[in-house]
């Protein structure tokens, strides 16, 4: 589950965003001032920042500038009522990745967030050719999976599911997140029952005892978690 930081001082907008983003599978921390945002950034690593521009004690531009000067490439979306070209240019030049003008549809914002996170994940994965987890390794260039040195015979869907789980090792991946990110984004529909079949088949290939999985475990009421273990 991706963790976001929202810098915004409009209480009504905060309430709407908190409800909508949680419903869409995101965790959200809220800062209502630039000072609070700095404190949050000191203690937490975020997957994406949502920054309003005009705050009581400064600007979202200030936060963006600080983050980029520290070498942090976390994706940043500006939320702004200022749609003048000069503000848009300043936001992008300061290191922002996208901007959305108020008022906006909450569904549109969620879509923009997912699209940006996908681009970042693709960029990061292109820099990495091997994913390793215990005695299992994934050759991303060759689309092959090795377990204890032996190649696993996986279908395309099983391979993509495994990559998603391993990239989020030791974190809960919800069923909705899997359905949305793994298949809906490519235009292929997979229902909940089909996902259960894929999980069962994948367990048969990566577990010693699929009935008592050690790697691909179910987190009841939420989804699945991939444990980094050697078995």
From TrEMBL:
DNA-binding region: 128-228
A GO cellular component annotation in the UniProt record: protein-DNA complex
Domain of life, source organism: Bacteria
Modification 4-aspartylphosphate occurs at: 52
Reported function: May play the central regulatory role in sporulation. It may be an element of the effector pathway responsible for the activation of sporulation genes in response to nutritional stress. Spo0A may act in concert with spo0H (a sigma factor) to control the expression of some genes that are critical to the sporulation process.
Cited PANTHER family: ALKALINE PHOSPHATASE SYNTHESIS TRANSCRIPTIONAL REGULATORY PROTEIN PHOP, REGULATOR OF RPOS
Protein name: Stage 0 sporulation protein A homolog
Lineage: Bacteria, Bacillati, Bacillota, Clostridia, Eubacteriales
